[in-house]
Amino acid sequence: MPMAVAEDTEDGVELPLKGLGWHHVLVEVISTDGLKRLVSVGVLALHLQRTEDRKHFCYLVQGAGPIDVGHLRTAGNEVMQLVWREMPEDTEGYGAVIYLPNSTLVQGRNRLFSEVATRFPRTEFEYLIFMDEDAELKETLNFGMNTGNAWRTFERYLLEWRPAVGVPSYDYYFHVDTKEEVQTIFNFDQIVVAYHWETWPVLLPYTELFDDQSWWYCGSVQNVLCFAFFNNHRLMFNAVRVHRGTPFQIPTGWIASALTNVSVLAELPLEEPS
Fold this sequence. Notes:
By secondary structure, the chain is α/β, with parallel strands linked by helices. It has helices at 105-119, 150-161, 200-203, 217-229, 251-258, 262-265; strands at residues 12-16, 22-32, 39-49, 53-63, 77-83, 96-99, 123-132, 135-139, 165-170, 182-184, 192-196, 234-244. Strand 1 (12-16) and strand 2 form a beta hairpin.
C-alpha cells in the first residue's frame, strides 16, 4: 500500500530497487531559518508499482566450477552460478554462469547479489538462496511437510513460515532439537542460507572488511546482525539437513598446502586457523 503523498508534490523520480520491482520516489523539502540556521525537513514517500514477474526463489550458487542445477530450477525459480577457479569452454546446460577468477567467498556472493538486479531488473524475488556448489540436501525427519524432494521441501518450509533468514539443519550443529520441526538458530552456516527480501538492506551485501583476516568473519557479522535485527525470525528447519559433498578445506590449510618455503609456513597460525 502506498504511503500518503502531499497533493502539491510535483516532481517524481523513478528508479529500480534491487529485486523489489520499480518504485516512484516523491520528495518534498520544507526549509526554515528559525534559529539563524537552515533546517531542512525531507518527506519521502514511496509508491510501490508491482511488477508482473514475481518469483519466490533465486538460487545463487558459488563454486570452483559450474554444476548441473536441474535439481534447483523450476518454473517459479531462477538460478545463477559463479565460478572462481576455471571456466569451461562449453557452459551450455549450466544456465547463467559468471566467472570471477580467484575471488573469495564474500566477493563471489556479493557479485551474485549485484547480478540479481542486473539480470532480473523487473523480477521480484521473495528469497535469495545462497549456497555452495557441493551442498547436498536430504530429508531426514518428517513432520508432514515432506515432498520427496529435499529442495522442494526446504522451499515449502520457507513459504509456510516466511522467516527473515531460513536454513536447513546441519550434521555439525550440536543444538539440533530433533523433536522440534522448526527452531531458532544463532550461529548458522553459510553453506545454504535463504534471505527474505526485507532483510537485504541490512544483511546484503556481505561485508568484505575482514576478508584479509578470515573468510569466516563475514558469517560472524551476519550472525550478529541477524541477532540484532531479526532475532526471532532466523529459523532452522529440522526436516531437511544439508551435507557437504566434498571435504571442507579452510583457507589457511589451503594456503599451507601450496607453500614450499618452510620459514613462511612456520608463521601461519595453524593451531587456530581461519
